[in-house]
Amino acid sequence: MNPPADPLARIARWLRETDGLIVAAGAGMGVDSGLPDFRGPEGFWRAYPALGRAHVRFEEIANPAAFERDPALAWGFYGHRLALYRRTVPHRGFALLQEIAAGLRGGAFVFTSNVDGQFQKAGFADARIMEVHGSIHHLQCQRGCRGAVWCAEGFEPQVDEEACRLLGEPPRCPHCGGVARPNILMFGDWAWIPRRTEAQEAGLVAWLEHVRRPVVIELGAGENVPTVRRFAESIGGRLVRINPQAEPMLPAGAIHLRCGALEGIATVHAALVRHR
Ligand SMILES: [Zn+2]
Asked: 14 near 215, Cβ under 8 Å?
């Protein structure tokens, strides 16, 4: 009789047998780097007290209508985030993931709903990342002029954090001179230009064609915006779900590590070393 396998030994075996690692990351991935968690209005308003005082919810400010109504306020929010993500140092879990993937024939591919650019910052190749909701490090015209998307480099937002307002001029569209916005898929957003994300998706599809036995490590992906979870489950590979929440609906065969992203990655990394 075989004893029920220790889940960590099983994960280690999966990683020894795989030829490609898929990292599927949601908002929980950034928490260990010190990034704020916007879950629920309380968490969001704690991070942006000026929006709390004005009772502006996340869904209202992360909205193209906010850029129409009050670009200085919308850019107060996004400018603060852009500066924050630029100075954030990705936690150690990013490097551990790279170590886990280093010996694999196909390496790793990242699928993330995060717009913070932390995987690139941690050294993951641009060509191996799909940012399904876009990136704050890229801009586009509010009106979507010519389908253009350009890098936010050179735009250094100065923000009055007390009032959540951009000081100085917002970035402008080079074609029409109108206010530019982040190339992020927002709420009620019909003007988002998906060009970058579509090119990244083509890269992912091509990569997947050459990977026979993918392992998916899903990190901090919630149920409210289930894009990352759905993707992770759609692969049909071996799935490790790392999430501090309870998991009553865990897909058959998947393994749940109930903890934060960094702790979960470190646990998987240690198991791989121990069972090598
Ligand atoms: Zn324009």
From this structure: yes
Q: Rounded distance, CA 220 to CA 218, Å? A: 7
145 is in an annotated binding site: no
Check the annotation: does 259 bind a ligand: no
From the candidate CATH numbers 2.130.10.10, 3.40.50.1220, 1.10.10.10, 3.30.1360.40, the one assigned to the domain spanning 7-274 = 3.40.50.1220
Residue 1 has pLDDT above 80, yes or no: no
Catalytic residue among 91, 133, 256, 269: 133
Q: Is 164 annotated as a binding residue?
A: no
The four Cα atoms 256, 100, 36, 72 give a dihedral, to 10 degrees, of -130
* pTM of the predicted structure, to 2 decimals: 0.95
Is 175 a known active-site residue?
no
Q: What is the pLDDT of residues 92-115, one digit of tens each?
A: 999 999 999 998 999 999 999 999
CA–centroid distance, residue 142 to ligand 1 (Å): 7
Helix (H, G, I), strand (E, B) or coil at 229: helix
CA distance 130 to 92: 21
Question: 157 C-alpha to center of ligand 1: Å?
Answer: 20
77 Cα: distance to centroid of ligand 1 (angstroms): 21
Domain boundaries, the chain: 7-274
